[in-house]
Amino acid sequence: MLKKKILIVDDEEHILELIKFNLEKNGFEVLSSDNGEDCIQILEGNSVDLLVLDLMLPGMDGIDVCKEIRKIDKFNNLPIIMLTAKGEETDRILGLELGADDYITKPFSVRELVARIKAVLRRTDTKGIDKQKILKLKGISLDTEKHEVTVDGNLVDLTLKEFELLKMLIANRGKVLSRNTLLDDIWGFDYFGETRTVDVHIRHLRKKIGDDETGEYIETIRGVGYKMK
């Protein structure tokens, strides 16, 4: 499996080194730059999966870089996570309006940044699935537009979180999803570590789709998480 390639742009060398070290430890390939001009050139010459972009750069700042990137067709869907200082709320909002997918405020936890990168990449990887109107698995039919689920033709009443949980499991059928992965994608990083939240929702979901009796759909991977059979 090919490693995901991340480009980090920040003018503080110690931050570049810190992020690079931790991303490589998590299995990513990392490119880096300390200015906006080089960032554009690196993107042109490499196949990059995600950009971590500091707002406060010398010369061409992060906002200008974001504007330039979104003008280039092949970078329209490039995921961008912006690094901002606490007092830069206006710039942060502008960055999101220009197409940044997420932002994280300095000083930040490297662990949180890595978790956010993984979450954004997962969302990007499943965009094709999200465009499908109907997801089907055995007797389950999930309508992404109507937010309706039927099991063997019978309508099932799910909460929003239960619906998102079922959709994510079906979209990743056969793949083991850890509890923290499910928390990141469905509840957000603020819930990191509260894995009981996932277990409770899985239990309710199983009951509603009849899986608590048959065990036909959701498999518990002990000590890790869940997967859809």
TrEMBL record:
Origin superkingdom: Bacteria
One GO term of the biological process aspect: regulation of DNA-templated transcription
ATP-binding keyword on record: no
Post-translational modification 4-aspartylphosphate, affected residues: 54
An MF annotation (GO) of this entry: transcription cis-regulatory region binding
Transcription listed as a keyword: yes
UniProt function note: May play the central regulatory role in sporulation. It may be an element of the effector pathway responsible for the activation of sporulation genes in response to nutritional stress. Spo0A may act in concert with spo0H (a sigma factor) to control the expression of some genes that are critical to the sporulation process.
Name of the protein: Stage 0 sporulation protein A homolog
Species, as recorded: Serpentinicella alkaliphila
